[in-house]
Design goal:
mainly alpha; 0% strand
Length: 434
C-alpha cells in the first residue's frame, strides 16, 4: 500500500471524528435545551458558539501550517478538540457551555485547511480532487453515525456520558498520525520512489494557474476575484451545511414531533447521501478534467450544478408537510451540496503556490465559516418570531445557495501573477463591459 494512501485514510478517519464530535451537540440539543431551559433564539446562539472560534482559527490554523507544518498542527488540534468535546459533558451552565463550545470550535478550526495542505504536498495534481473528496467524505459519514451513536449513548446513559466517551477517539487517532505522517513525503522512510516520481511528473505536466517560481505576497491573493468568489461559494455551501447540521435534528423534534430514536435515524440519512456526494464530486471533477483538459472549468462546473440542485431540493423540503418527503428532499439537497463541496478546496490547491496554500486556504475557509456564525442564530430568530415555522429558514438557505453558484460562474477566473492584483469590483466592471 502506497504511503500516500495511508495518509488519505488517516485524513478520512480524522474527518469522521471531526463531524462525529461536532454533530453530537445537535443530536443532544433537545436534552440540553430541556436542562438549560433554552428558547429557540438561545438555542441558535448556543449552536453558533462553535463557529465563533472555528471561523477565526480556519485562517490561524492555515497560517500556522505554513510555518510549522500540518503534522504538529493537526496533532495539537485533534488532542485539544477531543478534550473540549469531553468537557462539553460536564458543563453545568449556559455561559460555561458557551465558552467550552467556542474553544472546541477554535480547536477544530485548523483541520480542513491542513487536510488541503497535506493533499497539496502528497497527492499528484490530477488526483487531488478525488483525494480531497475521499478525505472529506468522512465529514458527512461522521454526521451520519453521530445520530445513531449519540442517540444510543443517551438512551443507555445520558447526554453527558456521550460526550465523555467520544473524547477518547481523538487521542487514539493522534498516536497513529504522529507515527505515519511527515510534512515532506521524501522524509518518510516508507514513501516509495515511484510516489515521488508520480508527484513530480504530474506537477511538471499540469496546466499552470499560478507562478510556482515566484513567491507572491500573501496580500496579492486576498484581492483576487478567484479567491474571493471561491470564498463566497464556500460560504453558500457551508450555510446550507450548518443550517442542516445545527437545526435539522431540532426541526424533526420540534416541528415534526419525532422522538430521540426516530430523530437519530432520520437525521442520519441525508449524511449518508452526503458521503456519496463528496466522493462522487471529487471523482467526477477529476474525470471532467481528464477528458476536457480544462482544470478550472472542471471545478467550477461541480460547484454551480451542485449548489443550484441543492438549493431547489432544500426549498422543497421546507415546504412539504410529509416527514418522509422532507427527509428525502433534504437528503438529495445534502447530496448535491456535498457534490460541490470538494471543488472550492481543489480550486485553491490548483491555483495557489504551495508556500501560500495553507494561509490562503485558511482565509477562504474563514470567509466560508462566517456562515456558521450566521445560519444557526438567524434560523433561531426566524423560528421564534414566525411562531415555530421553519419554512422561511429553508427557503433562505436555498437562496444563499443560488448566490453562491452565481459568484463562481461569474467571477472565478485564472489568476495572472504577471498583472497587478485586480479587485473583485474591477472584475465586475470588466464583466459588464464584455
Amino acid at each position: 500500500m502506497k504511503q500516500r494512501n495511508k495518509i488519505i485514510t488517516l485524513l478520512f478517519i480524522a474527518s469522521i471524528i471531526n463531524y462525529l464530535d461536532r454533530a453530537a451537540f445537535s443530536v443532544a440539543m433537545p436534552y440540553i435545551k430541556d436542562y438549560l431551559q433554552l428558547s429557540p433564539a438561545e438555542i441558535g446562539v448556543m449552536l453558533s458558539s462553535f463557529f465563533f472560534g472555528y471561523a477565526l482559527f480556519n485562517f490561524v490554523g492555515g497560517y500556522l501550517s505554513d510555518i510549522y507544518g500540518p503534522r504538529k498542527v493537526m496533532a495539537i488540534a485533534m488532542l485539544t478538540w477531543s478534550l473540549f468535546c469531553g468537557l462539553t459533558g460536564v458543563a453545568f451552565s449556559y455561559i460555561i457551555l458557551f465558552i467550552i463550545r467556542v474553544i472546541f470550535g477554535m480547536s477544530e478550526g485548523p483541520v480542513s485547511t491542513n487536510i488541503n495542505k497535506v493533499i497539496t504536498h502528497w497527492i499528484p495534481i490530477h488526483q487531488r480532487a478525488r483525494a480531497i473528496g475521499i478525505a472529506n467524505a468522512g465529514n458527512p459519514l461522521g454526521g451520519a453515525i453521530a445520530g445513531p451513536i449519540v442517540g444510543f449513548l443517551i438512551i443507555m446513559w445520558n447526554w453527558r456520558v456521550a460526550f465523555i466517551i467520544l473524547m477518547s477517539l481523538g487521542f487514539v487517532w493522534t498516536f497513529f498520525w504522529l507515527k505515519n505522517f511527515t510534512d515532506n513525503p521524501k522524509d518518510h522512510p516508507k514513501t516509495q520512489p515511484v510516489e515521488i516520481e508520480e508527484f513530480e511528473t504530474a506537477l511538471h505536466n499540469a496546466p499552470v494557474n499560478h507562478d510556482t517560481q515566484t513567491r507572491l505576497p500573501f496580500r496579492f491573493y486576498m484581492t483576487q476575484p478567484l479567491v474571493l468568489a471561491t470564498g463566497m461559494a464556500f460560504f453558500a455551501i457551508n450555510y446550507i451545511l450548518y443550517f442542516f447540521l445545527t437545526w435539522f435534528p431540532s426541526y424533526l423534534s420540534m416541528a415534526k414531533g419525532l422522538n430521540i430514536a426516530e430523530m437519530s435515524i432520520a437525521s442520519s440519512i441525508p449524511w449518508l447521501l452526503g458521503s456519496v456526494g463528496m466522493v462522487m464530486g471529487g471523482a467526477v471533477s477529476d474525470y471532467i478534467y481528464k477528458k476536457s483538459g480544462r482544470l478550472l472549468f472542471s471545478r467550477k462546473l461541480l460547484i454551480v450544478v451542485g449548489l443550484i440542485a441543492s438549493s431547489v431540493c432544500i426549498c422543497i423540503a421546507g415546504i412539504v408537510d410529509s416527514v418522509t418527503f422532507a427527509v428525502i428532499m433534504m437528503s438529495f439537497g445534502i447530496f448535491f451540496m456535498y457534490l460541490a463541496a470538494s471543488s472550492p478546496w481543489s480550486i485553491i490547491s490548483d491555483s495557489i503556490s504551495a508556500d501560500k496554500v495553507g494561509g490562503v486556504g485558511g482565509f477562504v475557509h474563514l470567509l466560508a465559516n462566517t456562515s456558521g456564525m450566521i445560519a444557526p442564530i438567524l434560523t433561531g430568530f426566524i423560528v421564534q418570531y414566525s411562531g415555530g415555522s421553519f419554512i422561511s429558514a429553508f427557503v433562505l438557505a436555498g437562496i444563499v445557495g443560488i448566490f453562491g453558484a452565481l459568484s463562481v460562474a461569474l467571477f472565478v477566473k485564472p489568476i495572472n501573477s504577471n498583472k497587478k492584483a485586480q479587485p473583485l469590483t474591477d472584475s465586475l466592471t470588466n464583466l459588464r463591459k464584455q
